Amino acid sequence: MKAKMLVIGDAPLVTGFRLAGLENTVQCSDGTFQAELEKALVAPEFGIIVCKESMLAKIDWRLRKKLDSIAYPVIIPMPDYSGKSAEGDEIRNINKRALGFDLGAKK
Predict the structure, then answer these.
(1) What range defines the domain where residue 71 resides?
(2) Inside any domain, residue 41
(3) Is 79 a domain residue?
(4) Cα 81 to Cα 36: distance, rounded to the nearest angstrom
(5) What is the pLDDT of residue 26?
(6) Strand order in the sheet with 74-78
(7) Which range, 28-37, 69-78, 98-107, is most confident?
């Protein structure tokens, strides 16, 4: 089965990926982000979930613990226009443990 990519975030993030041709997007606010992420985690067709980094930093500790323990789907935090944050480094380390390599490492 071929896995799909899903983008969950605010209007600028979602619009950017839509303009790039991605059809699987969910536009949400900070208040609805966690519910949308939980729905996406149980959807078997999504193998990569791209999320806004600042929204991901605000999720409940129980969901954060779940993300820490799963390897699939892969969660990719995207920084917003203001740049990189410390919360993104934490999620990046979770992805590194799950995959065995660093997705954000520069060559």
Answers:
(1) 4-18+31-99
(2) yes
(3) yes
(4) 22
(5) 94
(6) 25-27, 4-9, 46-52, 74-78
(7) 28-37
Render the burial of 12-51: b for 16+ CB within 10 Å, e for the rest: ebbeebeeeeeebbbbbeeeebbebbeebbeeeebeebbb
Token pair recorded at residue 55: 């929204």
Burial of 64 (0-12, 13-18, 19+ CB in 10 A): middle
Helix (H, G, I), strand (E, B) or coil at 9: strand
**Above 90 in pLDDT, residue 7?**
yes
Rounded to an integer, what distance in angstroms lies between the CA atom of residue 51 and that of residue 45? 17
Look at the chain and report how many structural domains it folds into.
Answer: 1
Report the CATH number at residue 62. Answer: 3.40.50
Mean per-residue pLDDT, 41-51:
92
d(CA 89, CA 92): 5
